[in-house]
Structure formats: structure tokens, C-alpha cells
Amino acid sequence: MNEEYDVIVLGTGLTECILSGIMSVKGKRVLHMDRNSYYGAESASITPLEDLYKRFNIPGNPPDSMGKGRDWNVDLIPKFLMANGQLVRMLLITQVTRYLDFKVIEGSYVYKGGKIHKVPSTETEALASSLMGLFEKRRFRKFLIFVSNFDENDPKTMEDVDPQKTTMRAIFQKFSLGQEVMDFTGHSLALYRTDDYLDQPCIQTINRIKLYSESLARYGKSPYLYPLYGLGELPQGFARLSAIYGGTYMLNKPIEEIVIEKGKVVGVKSEGEIARCKQLICDPSYVMDRVRKVGQVIRVICIMNHPIANTGDINSCQIIIPQNQVNRKHDIYVCMISFAHNVAAQGKYIAIASTTVETGNPEKEIKPALDLLEPIEQKFVSISDQYEPTDAGTDSQIFISRTYDATTHFETTCDDIKDIYRRMTGSDFNFAEMERGKQDIFGDAAE
Fold it and tell me: Which of 13, 211, 303, 439 has a 20 to 30 A CA-CA distance from 176?
């Protein structure tokens, strides 16, 4: 253990495992430790089901109707992958896809007036959608055509819009789109959590809608993918990548002290021994004196014996409840997966509702989502604090990840990874540098 490493990583959350893999591929000597005996840290998948009951202090064992405990792999933090998003690119170029199989999420829905509706994201779907009246459908179709043609390098496609100066609010006005169309466009296509984006430059939103459309075009049912056996497979895949390139992994290691000399990290002490390093990557739980609390997220894991009503009995979907529909400042999200993804016993479904906490009664805040899921066989409620680093790491060489937010995709996590990489290396993350040979997209995803 008394050895010298370029980088020590503490915690096996997805962010930490991806950075560990990236640094190993770059030829750095990496030691990766976790105080837990399992991968995934706060974003782990819990198996068997008995362990989930224990974790949430639910007395007794799961009833026999839940099937075998080993049939369950329950994510503590629900997220899907955008088929054309940054995490999929990272998986493909590093060939971590070799260790994983994916399925397409079968539907994407938005909540309006107490009901759920399929999210229209193509011109054809827009014309058939029950979310809009006839004239609004035509205006929305024109808007989608404008977005798909928009090219920052070709002024002819911009229709006198300045991508850096024109706000998104002005774009919606340009196409005479009303509040409810703005709601589902901003929250279900561009996947914003609040309405702050309306007064920011429109190019960000245009690019986010394009990402949604391109991801949807990949497989057709929805823009989202999910790994068989749960999200816990993702950090393990990147841990294997790190190991291939010489990274060393130690689970179940108590972390006694982060050793700092003259304001800079020099090592980590565990079981009386010190491993020395030049840089340290960790999640907030290891350095509570270097992070600040920025909010809370409530997540409710629900086990059901039926699919969600009004989704056409599909085995997986996402539902977004835009903030304005329920008089809130933040959206509410529902992710549903099932036995079809090898995460639940036959005939069982797992839906996880999540949102950013705004009041002293978080369970009441999430009720609109739980009402869509009834009847629920068993609920597991967690309220987690969210942290962000107060230390950029440039002096201390300690680089801290952010806590996972309430969103149901990994784009914000990938932004954090790229931000940490930039602070560690002084250069932008280059996808091409990570390339390990070309390969085809996921085997089972299109099924």
C-alpha cells in the first residue's frame, strides 16, 4: 500500500469510475478505493431484494408474491442514457459496451391536466398529438422543422435568429407557441428542470432538442436506453476498463485520512498505511469540509405488479411532470423499468419518482407522480442532500464530483466528468483520444 500513484480515486460512483477509466487509458497510475464492499456508491443497484428492505429499515422479509430476492436489482438513483448522448459516446469509444447489454425504453410521456400524453418529437407525431389544437400543431411542426434545419455555420438556416443573443422565449414567440407547448418542449424534449432557460441564448435549447430527436431516431420508441441488470453494471464496466490499463481496485477499505501537506494532497491513509498520490478524485462524502449543500432530492422507489396506466401496457417508460402543471419550481420525473430488464421478478415493475425538494413536506410534493402509479405494492422513500465542491481543486489537487441530481438522464453527470477532467488536466476532454477501435452500437438495444 505504501506506494506512489498518479491518481487515487475514492468512491465507486459512476463519475469516479469513468474518470478512473479515462485516467488509466491516458497512462496514469491509478489506485481506486471505496469504503463500501460494492460498486456504485450512492448510485448502486441493490440485490437481493432483502437488502433493499434492510437498507430502508422495512421490517420483515419481502412477501412471497415478490418472487426470489435474487431476481431483483434495484437502482437507488434512476437514470436512463440518451441514445445519442455523451455517456453512450464514452461507452462506445472505450468499448465498455462489451460488458453490457442495453434495451430501448419503450415510451416517453408528459403530464398535462392530470393525464399523461406521449411526447411528440417528430413532425408526424406533432400532427397526431392530443396535446395541442389543430392550429398549434401546425405552428409546432414548423418550429420542429426550424430546429432540425438550424445550423450555426449556415446563416440561411437561421431565419434572422442570432443563436447567442436571441432568447428561447423569443423563439417560442416567433412561432406563436403557447405556454403548454413551451412546457413540454422545454421540459420533455430539451429536458430542462426549471424555466430559467427561457431567458438564455436559444442555441443551448436548440442543441438539446436536436439531441433528443437524434437519440429518438436511433431506435424509434424513445430516445432512452437502459442496461440489463441495472445501472450498477455501468461503474463496473468502467472499473474493468481501468483494470485493463493497470488500475488497482480495493473495495471495503476504510479511509482514515486524506493527507495534505502545504495545502496540497499527497496521499490517502487506510488501515495505518499511506498510499501517496499527485491528484485525488472523490465524491462529496469523503471531503465534507470541501463541499456545500445546494438542495435535496426526494426519490421514491415503487414496486408494482402492473405497468403504468394509459401507457399501452409497455414494460418501460419515462414520464415528466412539468413544474407549471403542478404549481412547482422543479419538474417531477418518473422512470419505470421491469422484469424485461432483468431487474425484477417475473411480472413485476419498478417505478422511481424523483424531484428537487422545495418544501418541508417532500412526500406531498411527489404525490402527483405516485398517484399515476397506484396501486403500489411497496414503497421505499429516500431524501438525499445534494452537494457541490467549494474547492475547484487547482491548488489542493483534490477534485470532487457533484451529487446526482433529480434528472433521469446522465447528461448532467457527463458535464461534471468533463468539468473535472478540464480542472485536472488543463485541457478539454477529447473523445477521440479515448478511442479504442471502432465497434457497432449495442447488440440488443434495437430489439
Answer: 211
